[in-house]
Design brief:
The protein is an alpha+beta fold. It has helices spanning about 20-35, 60-65, 105-110, 135-140, 185-200, 225-230, 235-240, 250-255; strands at about 10-15, 40, 50-55, 70-80, 80-85, 90-95, 115-120, 130, 130-135, 150-165, 170-180, 200-210, 215, 235, 245, 275, 285-290, 295-300. The protein folds into 3 domains: about 10-70 and about 215-235, Pseudouridine synthase, CATH 3.30.2350; about 70-210, Pseudouridine synthase, CATH 3.30.2350; about 245-300, Archaeosine Trna-guanine Transglycosylase, Chain: A, domain 4 (Roll), CATH 2.30.130. About 20% of the residues lie in helices and about 35% in strands. The strands form 4 sheets. Strands 1, 2, 3, 4, 7, 10, 11, 12, 13 and 14 form a 10-stranded mixed sheet that branches.
């Protein structure tokens, strides 16, 4: 009799390779984990590498509730060239000598892009304009505008400034930067806007996401490594790390699983999702406060 393969429920922190879309990584993980139930939290551009959070089996129910609001990146911004995609994937649309741009001017430009700012996403982003993805409109040659959106760049630092000569002979500057920002911030839009402010144009040539919420690059595994050994953060550990923990006894666990809305202790009121654990540390549900009661967001049983 053959043993039935069971995939553990939990999160997988992937170090995404360059050239893969987030959907490519999900498809690959379905093969590795031998299950269709795989989802991702927050996309990462194909050019970029680094932290991509996946949910496997029942942990897919957690993904939409994880507060992955802050992200951290290391990247390279090239000053002196604009591209159609604001990154190295697109063709160059204009070039200007950037060799005379001073470090003071760079720091001043970065200061304007730090804090609470309004940002216009790249036209090749996945944002929907009247129900149609922006990148599709751009690909179809449409002329359209994307409204600016509020984002927060809590840290934008330059580690190194390197003189370089681009393939077309333009004198460019490559800035090695780190950015800590809110979800929904486009790093390539920061590169574009910094270049525009300095009058020479700019685009992103490399990007690595080093943190998403509490999940850091040192916990991430490459797809090759996961192929050899699937490392899953158990669903109970993932919920415990991401949400306040409320422990209930066997009687209240039974009531909760039968759809009864329990009184939510005051300490958890108004603070977002709460993970409910029953006896023996079993994850029962994710709930939120609604009129003093615990309303279920996802039930794990």
């Amino acid at each position: 009799m053959t043993q039935k393969h069971t995939t553990p429920d939990g999160l997988v922190i992937v170090d995404k390779p360059s050239g893969f879309t987030s959907h490519d990584v999900v498809a690959k993980m379905r093969g590795i984990a031998r299950t269709r139930r795989v989802g991702h939290a927050g996309t990462l551009d194909p050019m970029a590498t680094g932290v991509l959070v996946l949910g496997v089996e029942r942990a897919t129910k957690l993904l939409g509730h994880l507060a992955l609001t802050e992200k951290e990146y290391l990247g390279t911004i090239r000053l002196g060239q604009n591209t159609v995609t604001d990154d190295a994937e697109g063709e160059i649309t204009s070039a200007a000598d950037a060799s005379r741009v001073t470090r003071d001017a760079i720091d001043s430009g970065i200061a304007k892009l730090t804090g609470a700012i309004m940002q216009v996403p790249s036209k090749v982003s996945a944002i929907k304009i009247n129900g149609v993805r922006s990148y599709k409109r751009a690909r179809d040659g449409e002329d359209f505008d994307i409204p600016a959106r509020p984002v927060t760049v809590s840290s934008f630092a330059v580690y190194d400034v390197r003189d370089a000569v681009a393939e077309d002979g333009t004198q460019v500057l490559d800035l090695v930067v780190s950015v800590v920002c809110s979800s929904g911030t486009y790093i390539r839009a920061l590169a574009r806007d910094l270049g525009a402010d300095l009058g020479v144009g700019g685009h992103l040539t490399a990007l690595r996401r080093t943190r998403v919420g509490p999940y850091k690059i040192d916990a991430a595994k490459t797809l090759d490594r996961l192929q050899q050994e699937l490392t899953v953060m158990p669903i109970a550990d993932a919920a415990s790390a991401a949400f306040p923990r409320w422990e209930v006894d066997a009687k209240r666990a039974r009531l909760l699983l039968n759809g009864v809305r329990l009184e939510l202790p005051e300490e958890y009121a108004g603070g977002g999702p709460v993970a409910v654990f029953g006896p023996e540390g079993r994850l029962l549900a994710l709930v939120e406060e609604h009129k003093g009661k615990a309303k279920s967001l996802a039930v794990f049983g």
